Every structure is written in C-alpha cells, then in structure tokens.
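Study this fold:
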Amino acid sequence: MANSNSNTQSWKVEIPVKIYNKAEGFVTVTKFNNSGSLLYVGDNGSKKINVINTKNWKIIGSYIGHKGVIWDIDISGDDEIMVSGSGDLTLGFWYAKTGENIRMFEPLSSMSIPVTLSIQKNMSTKYLVVYCKTKTKTGQSCINFYDLDKVIDKSLSDDQVLHKSIKWTDSNDITSIKWIDETKYIIGTSDGRIIIKDFIDEEFVQEKSVHTAAIKTIVFNRTKTGILTSSLDSSAKEIDLATLEISGEYKSKVPINSAIYSQKDRTVILGGGRDAMEVALNGDNDLSIKIFRKKDRKLLKEIKSHFGPIRCLNAQSESKNFVSGGHDGLAKIYLLDTVEDGDEIQENEEKEEEIKSETSIETFNIINYTAHLGIHNVVGKSLSDGKENMELVNVHKQVINKQNQIQNQNNIPGSKNSAPKSDGDELFMIGSRDFLAETEEKRKKRHDDKKKQMEDDDLFVVKVGTNEVDSDSDDFVPMEKTTPGAVRVSNLPMNMDRFELKKMLQDLFDSFGKVTHIAIPNVSFDRIAFINYADVNKAHKAIEIYTNKKHVIEHQIMCVELAPPRN
C-alpha cells in the first residue's frame, strides 16, 4: 500500500476562486446537484439553504423553513427533489428547481436529529436513508428509510411515507451513510469502522475497522467499486468495496474532515484542520487544502484558503471544479475548469526533471533555459560525447529567438549564451505558458474589473492564497476607534505578510467569541494589531489564555493586552 508523505507541491498553476460569504456562522454543507448546474450551501446560523447558479455564480434563491442548523442535504438523481436534515429535529423535502417545500416533519424517533442522509441515484428505486441521532439518554437512535415517490404524494400522511425504521443499538454513532445499490448501504462510525448492511436482509452485515478515530465522510469512485474515507485520525483511505481492503492512504498532520475524488478520479482532495481553541493549546495547525495525484499519491498542490478548519468538500460533476466550506463562514469554489489540467502539468514537469537528470551540464543549461522561456517537450542527450544532436541545436535556436523577442519587447537584459535575468519583471507560470508581470496600467484595469465584478455578481473572484479582492492599497483599513472589547497584540513579526498575519490572528482569536474587526496599522517601530470583540468578556478571556500560555510566531513571543479605548 502506497502512502503519501511528500510535502513538495509541484503544481504551480494559479486557480481562480469564487467566494460565497452569505453564511451565518460556519458552513456545514456544500453540495452540487448531479448535473453540476446548481450549488447548495447550508450553515449553522441562517436556518436556510442558499442555491447558486453555476453558470453565472449568482445566488438565485433560498430554501426557507428550518428553524435550526442545516446538517446535511442530498439531491435525487434526476435533480428534482432536495432533502435536508436540520438541528430543529426535522427533515425537509423540497422541489429543487422551484424551492417549494413539499413537506417537513420530525423523524419517527422523537427528539432525534437527522444528521446524515443519502438518496439512491440512477436506480430503479428512489429511497432516502437517514440516520437520526437521539438527543436524550433514554431515547433511541435509528436508521429511517423513505420512498421519495410517496413523499411527493401529498395525500399521504407523514407516517405513511416512512418505508422502514431500524433501531441503531451500537454504542458508537453513525457519522456518514451512503447507498451502494438498491438494497445495500455503507456506514461510517465514530470509532473508525465501515459497515455494509442490507435494508431488506437485515442479517447481512460486512464490517471492518479502517481508522482509529471517527470517519467523517465517505465518497465513491466513478465505477462505485471503491470508496474514499476521511477521518479525525488525520488520514484518508481508499478501500475496495468487494474485499474491504485498504488500497491507498493519504496522511496529514491534522484531522481530515472531508476527502473527495476530482478530475474523473485522477486527483484526491483533502481538507480539515484543528479548531482555534485546540490550536491555542497545541500550537500546531494546517488549514490548507491538499490536492494529490491518485495514481501515485503525489502531492500536487497545497491551497491556503480558509481562516478556520475546512468542514466540507464537494466536486462538481463532469467538471474539474470543486467547493470547500469552512469554519470561517466562507464557501469557496475553485474554478479548475479555467486552468490547464493538473495531471498534464505534472507530467510535463516530470518530463523536464527527467531530462535534466540525464543530461550533462551543457545540456542542463539549455533545457533549464527552455523551461524558463516556455519551450516544452524537449528531448536530448549529453553533448559531452561530441555527437551532434540536431534536436538540441533546434532547441537552442528557439531559445535565442525567444530571448531576442523578449528583449526587444520588454528590455530584459541578457545574452544569447545565458538565460535572461529578472530585474524587476518576474516571470511566473500559469499552466504551461509564461507571462511577464503586469504593467501598472494592466494592474489598474484588473482592479477596476474586479470592482465592477463585485457590483455585478453575488460571488466575487480572488486568486488562491488570498481571501480578498485586489485593492489599490495593500494596507488594511485602519480601525478608527477601539471598543471596550478590543485586544492589543504586539511583538508580531515585521517581515510577515500582513494578510497572512491577519488570517493567523483570526484563527487564533475567534474561538473565544465573535471577532468584529481586526486592524493592523502602519507603524515602523513595532508590528501591532487590534482585535475587536463584540463582548468585552471574550476579550478578557483571550488575554487570560495567551498571557498564561505564551504563543510564539516566527520565534517571537506574542504580547497580548487589553487595548485602551480611544475616540
């Protein structure tokens, strides 16, 4: 079994991102419908589900009716019915395209929460399976089965649409549940087991322990011959459904809350992280999304995106796009359809590395030069043996032509025997094309376009690695005045990127209470920040924690104190 232990990311492409910021509290679930035309987003505070049109990324409606947190949603195979489970103890059934509520009721087991659910897709039957977790010590958790054809028949009562209910007597909770076929379904448990059951033949059970902590998600590969699990034990595993044997493993330093297949199963994407309170105690976290190539489990790219732990991931069907939902209240759609295929990029880079390792110093310089100038698919052998190599001669001509073209257009210094040096105009790679850094005029136009886009769209575009649109200034808006609930943080690293610093402070301080604003003013003598809390008691709590337990940022001990109010 192959493990993924490499920390070297090799996919250098920049990925455009759409940001959804309409959630209240943290995002609990993000899910594309089966055709990929709509994206559903639920959270723990708004009590509604918003739906986004993926053609123009506009919010086109909301499903309103729940009175609690939205824990899970699923959509029927024909995209006609959407089902939601909520912390208000109810199941919601909706016409997906119109938002009309079909019915909403509490599951058969009273005082139980429908926490995870799944609808059969592309089958002759259309059953919904729901795990309902009891809220009381004397209550009974259960697995309920509903026939969606009966659900839409409003002449039937709520009890009549229930097809079957099975008591769940295991001491461990169900954390994920998915249909395998018309009768069998698979369960992930809080102690790391996967269990296959049959809702007609209740005696049929296959079971295996595959993780040492709770399984968070289960997804199928395209052929439905295997599954990918994510777990709080900081691993994701590929498992063969026929044998329940582990065929592959992906490891992380932090709990993995979600794992998905993408790009027709050619990549595996992981997301997770620790809560801010746990980070305050342990001082270690990793909030990056990791993209692996499946065939050899090589890490292609790490995306630093959310302020807090990533709670959910979902891939858009027949597309390379995917979405993440975070504890920071944001959902982010990564538009991989707009960039070159990651597998192709990786293979091109590996070819270049292979060529370099097989050539002499003279050949190495030429090939490295061609990679810098965007000339690819070079094949050559050592020149040191004196043999003529026409391919390399042709490549060398291409290099000279390319260099002269750049020199004439952009005045970049260089000579025909050495690669151009970057004196101010850096080259950066997007896919397999090289671009010169933008001029001030182009940059200003891009800023104006971004601002106009924000006015026109419900979601706005950023590049991976940032969480805000471009502005004319790199400075954050200074805080005009601090509230009685403001914390002053000093002795911060002067050389740390301001945006990265703000992200880190958000992650460190938002576990104590609602942070309303973070400001990092321009001062030359010290790097300081002001963090405003809605509740002054939360500010005192944060100060108490970080005074007793020192937090080190880039070898500097962070100093935390109550900020004096100023008008």
